[in-house]
Design brief:
Elements (H helix, E strand, L loop, with lengths): L1 H28 L16 H12 L5 E7 L5 E8 L3 E7 L7 H14 L4 H10 E6 L4 H5 L21 H13 L3 E7 L5 E2 L8 E4 L11 H17 L7 E3 L9 H7 L3 E7 L9 H19 L17 E2 L2 E13 L2 E16 L4 E12 L5 E7 L4 E4 L1 E7 L7 H9 L2 E6 L8 E2 L4 E3 L18 E5 L2 E7 L2 E4 L10 E4 L2
């Protein structure tokens, strides 16, 4: 009899798991039906989400409550839906420049309002009450910065509660006494899954609630849900899941919320190849969060083996945007073989609504234990410093792509232009632009240098590196982000 009962339980468990997998698979495939089309970039401001919040206010299914204002007076709203006894609290954009999950939250609202998945939505909303606090730091979002208007990191304000935003988060958590909490963030794109060249596209953490990193039922339940989310994301970004460092931080909200009795789950959105605006990662957030909500609603997480949490690879930080290996560099007449690691730093423009890139050498030497989103083996190629073309063009518009390719092949990485607008700081053309009086400094390869040079083999230039971007001069259809305009 005991064997029969165990078999029945196992079959029921497998049936629920199969339902879960089918549901999450359909979530991924049908995402475009629910994606908020107006959100297309990571620059997301308070004014961008207000029309959608106003729409939710007019929907009887939702409760929208202003729970406070930021330092600069922007409303912070709590949006609730569902009638179940289990409270799930999700907050995003505690850091103003971490917008990926905020966009996913509004995609989730579209899902909950949609006509499909009726059985799953009924299961979720009858078992759970969901509470969303999107964009906790609207002042930081306005200028696309991590910190709030006071200049503090809200996620280090859980003890002193100096900021109104931190006070709001604490007050809402306490009023809900939430069973589960989702702390939604973005992390650096340069994190990788430990000992692999794959980016940590999504990283999870069940934060520790004490220095000893003990595991009680509260933290254990968070770990179990994370194990489930990992199995889901592995289907769409295999090997690209990391486990965030769990050292106890007594000032952090996630650690304290765990200590206060809410099973806290941190989701960090990292990097994904050719996804600078994190739109594919946004989709993974949508699938990950809804999958977690569903497995909480059907209580299937309780049967998950907590030991699988430790099997998720740790985060490491060994990724570059571009890694060049084994290039030859001549210094004082002696050839040396080096690897270069290059990253792109974003510089904001247009009132923090857009940006251009500035490439920098981050490291050089033996980088054999590091990885790149893009890697080029430059063995046999010699680094040649770029020159300024002697002819002066009247305007940027006079530069043609075929002309630029020929100039790069001839060893020129800079061109002079007579009429430059004061506001111009970058160009989409694959060559740096200088004014007629610009003097090129002596070339020195080193950490912190903006890399613009040529790669030559057998006295022929095959590749150019302009502002840190690698250009294959033998290809016509090249994707190029930004070159720089120098005026001094």
């Amino acid at each position: 009899m005991k064997y029969i009962l165990h078999s029945i339980i196992l079959l029921l468990s497998l049936s629920v798991c199969a339902q879960n997998v089918t549901f999450t698979s359909q979530l991924y495939k049908g995402y475009d039906d629910y994606k908020v089309q107006e959100f297309t970039t990571r620059r997301l401001k308070h004014s961008d989400i207000q029309p959608f919040i106003e729409t939710l206010k007019s929907d009887d299914v939702y409760t929208v409550k202003r729970v406070g204002t930021s330092i600069e007076g922007r409303d912070i709203n709590l949006i609730s839906v569902g009638s179940g006894p289990v409270n799930v609290f999700l907050w995003s954009q505690m850091h103003g420049d971490e917008t990926t999950a905020t966009q996913a939250i509004f995609d989730i609202f579209n899902f909950l309002n949609g006509n499909h998945f009726k059985d799953e939505k009924e299961a979720i909303l009858s078992a759970l009450t969901l509470h969303f606090l999107p964009m906790l730091n609207p002042d930081g979002a306005e200028v696309f910065q991590r910190r709030n208007a006071l200049g503090i990191d809200i996620n280090r304000d859980a003890l002193r509660l100096q900021s109104p935003e931190g006070q709001i988060l604490k007050r809402v958590r306490d009023s809900l006494n939430a069973d589960f909490g989702f702390n939604l963030h973005d992390q650096s794109r340069y994190y990788n899954a430990e000992r692999t060249g794959k980016p940590a596209t999504i990283s999870y953490l069940a934060p520790a609630y004490n220095y000893e990193k003990e595991v009680n039922d509260v933290r254990g339940n968070a770990m179990k849900v994370i194990v489930y989310m990992n199995t889901i994301i592995q289907q769409y970004a295999p090997g690209q899941v990391g486990r965030y460092n769990d050292d106890f931080e007594p000032r952090a909200f996630g650690d304290n919320i765990q200590k206060w009795g809410t099973s806290a789950i941190l989701i960090e959105s990292g990097g994904y190849k050719n996804d600078q605006e994190k739109q594919e990662i946004r989709k993974l957030n949508y699938v990950s969060i809804l999958s977690a909500i569903y497995v909480i609603a059907n209580r299937e997480y309780k049967q998950i083996d907590i030991a699988d949490y430790e099997k998720i690879p740790k985060n490491d930080r060994k990724l570059f945007d571009l890694k060049l290996t084994e290039l030859t560099y001549n210094l004082h007449g002696t050839p040396y073989v080096l690897d270069l690691g290059i990253n792109y730093t974003e510089t904001d423009i247009k009132e923090h609504a857009d940006y251009y890139n500035v490439g920098r050498i981050i490291d050089q030497g033996d980088l054999s234990t590091y990885y790149g989103f893009d890697t080029f083996n430059a063995k046999g190629y010699t680094l040649i410093p770029g020159k300024i073309y002697t002819k002066v063009f009247k305007t940027v518009a006079d530069l043609k792509s075929k002309t630029i390719t020929k100039l790069l092949q001839q060893g020129y990485t800079y061109v002079r232009v007579l009429d430059l607008e004061d506001s111009e700081k970058f160009t989409a053309l694959p060559i740096n632009i200088v004014n007629e009086n610009y003097k090129l400094p002596e070339f020195n390869l080193g950490v912190g240098v903006n890399p613009s040079f040529l790669l030559q083999k057998d006295n022929v230039v095959h590749y150019a590196v302009v502002n840190g971007f690698l250009i294959n001069l033998n290809e016509e259809n090249r994707v190029f982000k930004n070159a720089l305009i120098f005026k001094d």
